[in-house]
UniProtKB/TrEMBL annotation:
Alphabetized PANTHER family for the sequence: CYSTATHIONINE GAMMA-SYNTHASE, TRANS-SULFURATION ENZYME FAMILY MEMBER
Sites bearing N6-(pyridoxal phosphate)lysine, chain numbering: 196
Lineage, uppermost ranks: Bacteria, Pseudomonadati, Pseudomonadota, Alphaproteobacteria, Maricaulales
Gene Ontology CC, one term: cytoplasm
Protein name: O-succinylhomoserine (Thiol)-lyase
Cofactor(s) needed: pyridoxal 5'-phosphate
Source organism of the structure: Alkalicaulis satelles
Family to which this protein belongs: Belongs to the trans-sulfuration enzymes family.
Length: 382
């Protein structure tokens, strides 16, 4: 098999049987003609399947080493799709410091369907075993977690889930398959928001669920068609285009993030930096082993508190104050007020998301320009 970057660069190339277009065209048709009323062709109706989504799903399944993939209209739709396979009252173990939107959805679905939902510190094997004990159906991991960048040892965590009889799911949004492939580490499902690093250009919203076993992939496809959660044609085209440069972007953005994390770590105005690439990070050794890079996301707290952190975000000019991550443009966010505002203050405290935590998503601007911008904003405060 060819290498990851080769397969990514060839995503959807030479895949047009009609005209021999090098880049697969966008097929916007909602319906596909039949020659025989009893026999549909490969495509029938675009909610069920269309060529662009199909091509993207096959490519992402291949890159993640999955037997099947379902492309959805958003990352949250991908997460919700997985919950469709659970019976009422099923026990779910979820990382206590997962994405705020995931927690909001899990809480609401648990109330509605009587799920026995437990949040656990999945980076702690004892806490995880304890949570999995009473026969959990699903274990939901996120590593590195957003925004504190905690690292879960996926081989160990997925083995514990398997022993308990639970399906293990990894939200791989922060790294993408270019930097971490959860199925190779024992997970049953690797899902991601395409909106972030995979598309990488902040111009579409989408998600994907990559599944190890064909039977489970089939069941999730069934739900995606029944409920109409599949992604749209133009979004599939954009994600496929973004995917071709994913390995290069992921590498350059990770290198810049490490450089900025190191410089912030040495700055007297910074109280703490969370970045798994730093040697002092508690998850550094595991991250170095299970990841192919440390990713574009880092967080930090200032020694001068919450107000100074909020002011800092407004003094930056090369980091746009906005939600999202993984794009070619650098972004800054205050998770407590933005990405994780849907969590209760207690849940944020449990997850270690302080009111003054600053999160950076590092893009493709020159790293020295990014640092100059940060350094200037930090000095202003001092
Ligand atoms: C953004 C994000 C999601 C949700 O993805 P959408 O495409 O915005 O629905 C899920 N998990 C993580 C870790 C994210 O950062």
């Amino acid at each position: 098999m060819t290498r990851f970057s080769t397969r990514a660069a060839r995503a959807g190339i030479n895949a047009d049987p009609a005209h021999g277009a090098v880049v697969a065209p966008v097929s916007l048709s909602a319906a596909y003609r039949r020659d025989d009323p009893a026999a549909p062709g490969p495509f029938d109706y675009a909610r069920t399947a269309h060529p662009g989504r199909d091509l993207l799903a096959r490519t992402l399944a291949d890159l993640d080493g999955a037997s099947g993939a379902v492309v959805t209209a958003s990352g949250m739709a991908a997460i919700d799709l997985v919950l469709n396979d659970l019976p009422i009252g099923a026990r779910i173990v979820c990382a206590h410091d997962c994405y705020g939107g995931t927690r909001r959805l899990f809480d609401a679905r648990a109330r509605q369907r009587g799920f026995d939902l437990v949040y656990a510190d999945c980076t702690d094997p004892e806490a995880l075993s304890e949570a999995l004990k009473p026969g959990a159906a699903l274990a939901f991991f996120e590593t590195p977690s957003n925004p504190r960048l905690r690292i879960t040892d996926l081989e160990a965590a997925c083995a514990l889930a398997r022993k308990a009889g639970a399906v293990s799911v990894v939200d791989n949004t922060v790294l993408s398959p270019a930097l971490q492939r959860p199925l190779e580490l024992g997970a049953d499902i690797a899902l991601a928001s395409l909106t972030k690093l995979i598309n990488g250009h902040s111009d579409m919203v989408g998600g994907v669920v990559c599944v190890r076993e064909a039977e489970l992939a089939e069941r999730l496809s069934w739900w995606a068609n029944a409920a109409g959660t599949g992604g749209a044609a133009f979004d599939a085209f954009l994600a496929l285009r973004g995917l071709r440069t994913l390995p290069v972007r992921a590498r350059v953005q990770s290198e810049a993030a490490l450089e900025l994390a190191s410089r912030l770590n040495a700055h007297r105005g910074v109280a703490r930096v969370d970045y798994p690439g730093l040697k002092g990070h508690p998850g550094h050794a595991i991250a170095a082993r299970q990841q192919d890079g440390f990713g574009p996301l880092l967080s930090f707290e200032l020694s001068t508190g919450v107000k100074a952190a909020h002011q800092l975000t407004q003094r930056l000019s090369l980091f746009t104050l906005a939600q999202s991550l993984g794009g070619t443009e650098s972004l800054v966010a205050i998770p407590a007020l933005m990405t994780h505002a849907a969590m209760s203050p207690e849940a944020r405290a449990q997850a270690g998301v302080g009111d003054g935590l600053v999160r950076l998503s590092v893009g493709l601007e020159h790293v020295d320009d990014l640092w100059d911008d940060l350094a200037e904003a930090l000095e202003h405060r001092a």
